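=== Given protein ===
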Amino acid sequence: SACGFGKYQPVAGQFECELCPTNTSTKKAYARHLKDCKEICHPGSYGFIRGRHKNSKLGVKPCILCPIGSFQPQYGALSCLKCKEKMTTALRGAVGGNECVSEESPCLLSPCHNGGTCSDKNGLVTCKCLPGYLGSYCETITNECSSHPCFHGGSCNQSGTSHNCVCNPGYTGNNCEIDIDECTSNPCQNGAECIDLEDNHHCLCPSFFQGSLCEINVDDCEGNPCGDGGRCIDGLGNYTCLCKNDYSGKHCEFDPCSDINPCANNGTCHLSTNTSESSYWCECLPGYTGKRCNIKINNCISPCLNNGTCLFNLFSNKFTCNC
């Protein structure tokens, strides 16, 4: 025999049937599978029965809400109960008879949820919802993030009936719609020009500076352009060589004997091997002395006796006395 409503048996030849899980039943009396067990209809609704399932004992899904003017307090109903004459309900899906009100004032039951405003026309209720709610009776919170309100890749978080956007770096505003001007904080140094980019900035460095913020002075002394042990002093776009051992020139390229002869009176300049004392020495012509041959030798400083007159010969570097 058939299992009956609310039971099933997948194996032929059995003497007992399996019960459907709690709050479920079958549309037919000869169900064979667990999947034939459907959830029974909740109060305020009824099961739609037709065709070969017209003998069903319980209403199961798909269920239909009780229409306006009716109600149903039971689970698994196959129909709804009508309100008394000249009575109606404000909403579909009424659960109890206490929801039946006069047809003249269906809004008395405050059918609109979440602060919605109720109005009726010929007994038909219409709800005007507050922002953030929707549905026939304002029963559903709007998914604010479904419309993707956050610009420039911002992340949307639902917060009650509203939303907030978590913006990516470089953007701000309620919906991340404002591109932050990264140049307002003057990040570029040393007079560089700041160019605002999308979520970033770029510094146009003046000559002699480099780095993302133009914070680095280009090292003009790189490679040490100063020769012969000269010390390089870095400047802005230039450098200065502090030469050693009497060397000269922009790069200390001139030794003390090759530029301007430091030896006076036609003395001959020689580079010194002992730079701790001097970088050069002068070979003086006869009649001159001193480091730079700038001292004239006076061999006639009173060498003659008895008031004799001294006569000095520059060429022979000798003197004679005129007595």
Observations:
- The chain has no helices and 30 strands.
- The longest strand covers residues 117-121.
- The mean pLDDT is 86.
- Residues 182 and 197 are 8 Å apart (CA to CA).
